[in-house]
Each structure stands twice: as structure tokens, then as C-alpha cells.
């Protein structure tokens, strides 16, 4: 690819497991922040985005790469075979690393075969991506699917600046060491020039591991980790939303229609909303328990409220995801069965995604946003909810103190997502909050969402990598 004559900025090569946004899922926040953020990072500069197409076929094995340019972003994707998807994506990435990194050791499976599949697919990514990378490109690898990729690229002779960003939490050392071959995995991370985390908490856990388990020389102030004569920088870069894009959505007809649609259907009832991928880390059953507890305590307010939970299905071939879906259906069914009237249903549970525009309208129509993950690297739904509010009459964000976003959004009503009492209490507080307090909290939160946006995240990371 030719360099743009207007700029000396090196070309950016982004590599992530997921490239295309799954069409069926729509909603950006709900699909995970990664795809939307990387699209925003790439649309303003010369770059290439390499990864899995999301499709199953044998063609990736034969080196077949599909290259396309859409909306100013060039993507190069490969298909994965059924075995690769089973072992690498459903297996090691989403049945071992994901639960472990989200503190769910009880759900983590440790299978030798899936570990081998993970290494095999990382090797295939390296084999197919390396020829696309030119000498002065900057390479940015994303997320837990591709931890060893940097080391695999180095073994093919790449001397480029290579950075890695982890979009999910990094667990405490005593938990992380439950992973067989944990040392081997982390050693591969030290082949990157820069490793980024969402928050200082995850960064500190990583540095603690490197010092105590690997015996690396760690400088906490600069974030440098030195082992075997090689130094990697490790730092925190909280991801944000594409403020320019998101804040303009309110002007679209689609957003206005969605807002009207929600308001017309709820009439005089106050709506509360949750939008999450259907994932056990998001704390949705615990949230429903909290809402149930509120209804138990204040049954006279049920007629004034409606809770809308949008939860597009995710990773449906993984057993723990099938189980969480059943649990939720039961919980919503129980509360609705016990609390509905012929003309009123308290919980609307929706298993589909919506466009960014529609979500903006739903958020704006909802006086309370419930974002209560049990553990979350960042959580962009919280930031999108804030960005969508009417400055003259903003809603209240109820946010888990275990989401990375809680560090920046201290003016949300912070809750312990494991405690139904805490959630019930937060709902009451939000419902009774005077306008002045809602505005004061909103103004502080929106300033952070506006300024600590995805462009700032990209610029900070790439500055340090460069
Ligand atoms: O942000 C975490 C993450 O796992 C991303 O890597 C991913 O794209 C997103 O959530 C959605 O998950 P999946 O790609 O498995 O559908």
C-alpha cells in the first residue's frame, strides 16, 4: 500500500479476533466496545485491520484472505475452521481465559486440547498477517484471544513497534496462577513493546504477577517490566466512546423515533434500562434480583415503573452462556408472573440488538440506566447512557463499582452488583433524586465521557507505542 503524501504518520495495522461487527447484534455497546473503538481508531488514518471474519470455512487454512474497504477502513479477514472455532474461540478464549479473567474460576475449563488450538490459531494469524506488515508499520494487537501473537510475529523476524491492549480485566495473581502454563502465556506478552490495560487496578495486578511470579524487574512509576534483557512498558489507557459520532445521534430521525416509541409504549411509567451482551459477567440475573427486591419493598411503585433489558445473545455454543440464558428467562418469567397485571408487565426482556441510533433514543427515554457487571474491563454502555441524556432533565446511572468505568464515573450511583439490597436501594435513590442533583452528577460525568473519548485513547496509546 502507498504512503499518504500528506503525512509522515506510520501506517497502523490493527489485529483483533473480531473484525466485522456481527450484523445480527447491532448495538455497539452491547456487542463489546472493541469493534466500535477500533473502527473509530482506523477511520481517520491510513491502516489495515486484520482478523477473523466470524465465518466458518476451511479457506483460512489455505491462506485465503478477503480484503475490503468499507467506510474508509480496509479490512483483511480470514475464515476459521470448525475445529479452530471450537478449540480457540469457544474453547480456550471463551471457556478458559474469559471466565478466569472475570474472576469466575468456577466456570473456567482447563483443557489441554483447547490450549493447543489457541496456540495453533495464534500461529496461523502470525503466518497470514506477517506478509501484510511493512517495515515501518505500527502494529496494535487486541484482546485475550491473541495474547501470544506478538511473540509469534517476532519469531518471524518482525522488528516493528508492536503493542497489545487487553480489553478485559487482569485478575489478581492468586487467581491467575490457577491457569496451567500461566508463566508461558505471560512471557509471550513481554515480547510486545507496550501492553495496555483499561484501569490501574488491572495494570497493578499484572505488574504484581510479573514481579512475584516471573521475578521480573518492575518499575511501578514508569510501568517498565524487564525480563531476560528485554523491556516492555505496561500502562493503563481507559477506553472511551466516539463522542463526536455518538453525541450527534440524537439529531437522527431513527433516534427520535426510538425515543418516541419507548415513551409511547410506557406512557406515564418511568422506564429503567439495561443493555448488555448476554454474558454472565454482566450481572443481569443479579440485577433482576435487585429489581425484584425493590418491588418487594415498594410494591405500590410497581405500576409507575418498567424495566427494559436488552440482551442480544452471545457465544451461544458455550455451555455457560446457554445456562445464563435459561437462568434469565426463569427469573424474568417469575417476576413477571407474580407481579404483572392484565394491563401491565414490569420487565420487558428482549433478546436482540439495536442500532446505535435506536439505542440512543432508548437511553434518552429512560430515567434510570442500570449497568451492573460483576466484573468488567471498562463498559462502554455506561458511557453511552450518559452521552445520550438530555442535559436539562438527565437520567441517573446506576453503575457497578466493579466496572472499569466506575473509576471515571464516580458521580453515578455506585453499587455492589452482588447485593440485591444495594441495587434496590440505588433504584429508590435514583427515583427520588432531585433535578439539581441529577444535573450536577450528569455534568461531571458527561465532561469525562466527552474528553476521555476513543480518539484520546488511541492517541495516548499510539504516542507511547511510537
Ligand atoms: O471487549 C471484549 C470482547 O471480548 C471483544 O474482544 C469482543 O469483540 C467483544 O467482547 C464481543 O465478544 P465476541 O467477539 O465474542 O462476540
TrEMBL record:
SUPFAM superfamilies: UDP-Glycosyltransferase/glycogen phosphorylase. It holds the Pfam family Glyco_transf_20. InterPro entries: Glyco_trans_20 (IPR001830). CDD domains: GT20_TPS (cd03788). It comes from the Bacteria. PANTHER family: BCDNA.GH08860 (PTHR10788:SF106), TREHALOSE-6-PHOSPHATE SYNTHASE (PTHR10788). Belongs to the glycosyltransferase 20 family. This is Trehalose-6-phosphate synthase. It comes from Qipengyuania profundimaris.
